[in-house]
Amino acid sequence: MDVAQTVLALPPESFGVPDSGDTAWIIMSAALVLLMTPALAFFYGGLSRGKSVLNMMMMSFGAIATISVVYVLWGFSMSFSNGITGEDDIWGIFANPFSLFGSDQLTETTEVGGATHVVTGGLTIPSTVFLAFQLTFAVITVALISGAIAERVKFSTWLVFTVLWATIVYFPLSHMVWGGGIMSKAEHGFASWMFGSEDGAAKVAPIDFAGGTVVHINAGMAGLVLVLIIGKRLGFGKTAFRPHNIPFVMLGAALLWFGWFGFNAGSELAADATAGLVWINTTAATAAAMIGWLAVEWIRDRHPTSVGAASGVVAGLVAITPACGALTPVGSLGLGVIAGVLAALAVGLKSKLGYDDSLDVVGVHLVAGLWGTVAIGLFAKETGLFYGHDLKQLAVQVVIALFALVFTGVLTAVIALALKPLGWRVSSDEEAQGIDESEHAETAYEYA
Fold first, then answer.
1. Membrane-crossing residues (predicted)?
2. I need a labelling partner for 315 at 20 to 30 A (CA). Which of 182, 200, 323, 364 fits?
3. By C-alpha distance, which of 256, 257, 278, 311 is closest to 210?
4. What pLDDT score does 236 carry?
């Protein structure tokens, strides 16, 4: 079936006249979220040693390249095609990767009543714009993982991993949570099974506004699994791995905060009052988390650090991501300050537990992502325990967090082990010399 025939076969509700304000806002949000991955490259690059900074930044840029290509080809189709074509998904886990393969169908239009209509999938924005927005989420999620395995992994193996992991883990989880799958608000979702009413509709539904499970628990758990399988850097526990460029870290954190408004407020998919509330909640939680992290440093180490401030910013952004549309500003402050404290304490555990999470992906993204996802059951203004409601929302949030942990952990382990024959690690000599020279034949700085 050619493209025109495919589009003409789409259900009538898939065509509509987009709202220009919403469309403009989501295009801008997509650009903001795309900026987050180069921002992450600065953040991670600054935290790395000088002999590894280029490789660290290249891992983020490499993810932009590979994930953008596969998302256009089959990622969007696996995540969301059923909402446009009307086809059934596969067991509520993923949509048909071939339904909108290549995404050409989304560029088609049809004439209805003398007006040109575009494919919208029932949204107020064209599906091409929705694809652009969701593509940037896939990119940043994969790039986040790289910080856990910094300074020791072959660039070629990393690129292969990005494609496999996105296809096997990210696209299905995205569909399950946001695309009408088993963890979504759809009536066939698991919340309906747990707490369904007599008419089959869920009384409570999982809340993941912008990516607590899909992005942060997902990336954090993947990073932990890779760390355990790939192993530690040379000298871990004996050598001080200090950030080589703290201004890079601060710049990266600032740009991440800036881009995160597209991440969170853009997830409303409309330029409306809820997007404004999300903006406020994102800022409130992030500022409070920075204070929480610095308070831990002040009490524990007697010195609040700039790296701690930057890390606190990221922890707050992570924690508020799933909750930003469900909380009040005061609730966001409470969620944020606890996120900063928890993440700061969690980062210190890696030395005690002996796993080499190079740039604290587990401590920040996994821990803060888990807290933000579960805390919705406490702080959500309409269903949260602290607002006089029962435990149902909290139970739902705990279950989806646990599901994401198991789903991601098992599948990431399978992928990591399958890639072992390809070779994960650079040689010991190459690691000691510096992975920039061995992998890219470059150095970031000229030393006398």
1. 24-44, 56-74, 129-150, 157-178, 209-231, 243-263, 275-295, 307-324, 330-349, 361-380, 400-419
2. 182
3. 278
4. 87
pLDDT score at 4: 38
CB 293 within 8 A of CB 343: yes
Rounded Cα distance between 93 and 20, Å, is 33
Burial of 389 by CB count in 10 Å (0-12 exposed, 13-18 middle, 19+ buried)?
middle
Q: Domain limits of the chain?
A: 16-103+120-440
Q: What is the pTM of this model?
A: 0.94
> Residue 111: in which H helix or E strand, if any?
strand 109-112
Q: Residue 249 in 3-state DSSP?
A: helix
> With contact defined as beta carbons under 8 Å apart, do 42 and 255 qualify?
yes
**Taking CA 65 as the corner, what is the angle to CA 372 and CA 155, rounded to the nearest 5 degrees?**
90
Tokens of 437: 């020279």
Residue pair 335/285 in contact (Cβ under 8 Å)? The answer is yes
Which residues of the chain fall below pLDDT 70?
A: 1-13, 112-115, 185-203, 448
b/e sequence 52-69, b meaning 16+ C-beta within 10 Å: bbbbbbbbbebbbebbbe
The single-letter code of the amino acid at 214 is V
pLDDT given for residue 239 in this prediction: 82
CATH topology for 16-103+120-440 is Ammonium transporter fold (1.10.3430)
Cβ neighbours around 318 below 10 Å, total: 32
Question: What gap in Å lies between CA 16 and CA 348, rounded to an integer?
Answer: 52
Read off the tokens for 327.
Answer: 């909380």
The CB density around residue 391, as the number of other CB atoms within 10 Å, is 12
What pLDDT does residue 73 have? 98
Amino acid letter for position 145: I
Burial class (CB in 10 A: 0-12, 13-18, 19+), 189: buried
Q: What is the pLDDT of residue 5?
A: 38
- What's the CA gap between 142 and 67, in Å, rounded? 8
387 neighbors 380 (Cβ within 8 angstroms): yes
Query: What's residue 186's pLDDT?
Result: 47
What is the token pair recorded at 96?
Answer: 């048909």
Q: Which pLDDT score, from 0 to 100, does residue 438 have?
A: 94
First to last CA, the chain: 63
- ∠ CA(53), CA(57), CA(62), 5° rounding? 145
Amino acid letter, residue 166: A
What is the predicted pLDDT for the residue at 189? 54
CA distance 370 to 226: 19
Report whether 26 contacts 133 (CB < 8 A): yes
Q: In sequence order, what E strands does 279-423 have? A: none
**H-helix or E-strand containing 116?**
strand 115-119
pLDDT of residue 123: 84
